[in-house]
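Our platform keeps sequence and structure together, in a single record for each protein. Such a record has a labelled line for the sequence and another for the backbone structure tokens. Nothing more is needed to write down the fold, since each code stands for a local backbone conformation. For reference, a complete record is included directly beneath this paragraph:
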Amino acid sequence: MSLMPVAEALARLLDGVEPRPTEWVALADANGRILSEDLASTRTQPPFAASAMDGYAVRHSDLSAMPARLKVIGEAPAGHGFSGSIGPGETVRIFTGAPVPDGADTILIQEDTTRDGDIVMALERPAFGAFVRPAGLDFKEGEVLLKAQRKLGYRDLALAAAMNHARLPVHKKPVVAILATGDELVQPGAEPGPDQIIASNHLGIAALVEDCGGEPLDLGISPDDSVAMAGHVRLAIEAQADILVTLGGASVGDHDLVQDVLGAEGMDLAFWRIAMRPGKPLMAGHLGATKVLGLPGNPVSSLVCGLLFLKPLLAAMLGRQQSAALESQAILGADIGENDRRQDYVRAELAQDAGGKLIATPFGKQDSSMLALLARSGALIVRPPHAPALKAGASVPIIRL
């Protein structure tokens, strides 16, 4: 069987994927969620001309000669506007955020005054309209301020609150069931046997799912037993998971049972074996409405494939326009050899030179079991199939981590 190019595999994986439906959530629960509809303001902000400073609301024409003597006829704290009107020679004590009274057009800040009883002396003449925030300065009713497909953060939520939205329309989180497989695996904190290792991939993939806006569902670790593994797979179907991610066991060894088990449960295999390094044994298919993504068991292969395939799959389910990992350019920090027929994702340190240019220096060892190198990496250098050898200083595409 020939190896499928990365771009073709990704296109096939995303083909026909529809965004998850909308649900309405409380504003306090919307952080990190993906907005499913444009959001327009229900009000004008500020809804009235408001003072931007503590001071006195005045008629600018009363300040033609300095110092000017004005009579204080009332007070306007925030939330309690002055109900009357200001006439010639009159002023109202005003505080930040309060409505500017009728008749006033300028704010005289308190630092530029002296006061004796109900008489205020204006010592400096402000510009006309100084420190007055006009109605609608920030936004107006009906104005679309947050667009669909935006990932909501703290600034967006503050804005949505100011727009007087208590609930927001967001895409439902895709549920991603994660099944680690292998007799050799035990959970972190357990005491491994002499031939066992600590499972790590499922936790890294779960964190990636959360970062991408999905909801991870940990199915635990299945031993290399068809009956037990089938039971775990059925848990994903019963949970109506949008995606089932399996970790390991999808290759061709005698103990690699994942494909056979999934096939027996009714999976339609879309493709298997990708022309990439690390991650060649990647598998994709579907079990009814559930997408299946079989990631390799080696830790680096698993996480790199999650970045390249699971992340854009989740983006598509959330209606976001991200069909591939975002690439940028960097300067190669060391020589790199020619590549073979597989697209290579080379772990590299990332730094900046004095001019601010990114420098990507590949690590000498690239074994797919070396998770510590991935944690130290700032980028993956993307090496296309049959790419020629390059000297340090050449420009190379990278995926920043």
User: Anything to note?
Assistant: The longest strand covers residues 343-352. The longest helix spans residues 299-317. Residues 350 and 360 are 5 Å apart (CA to CA).
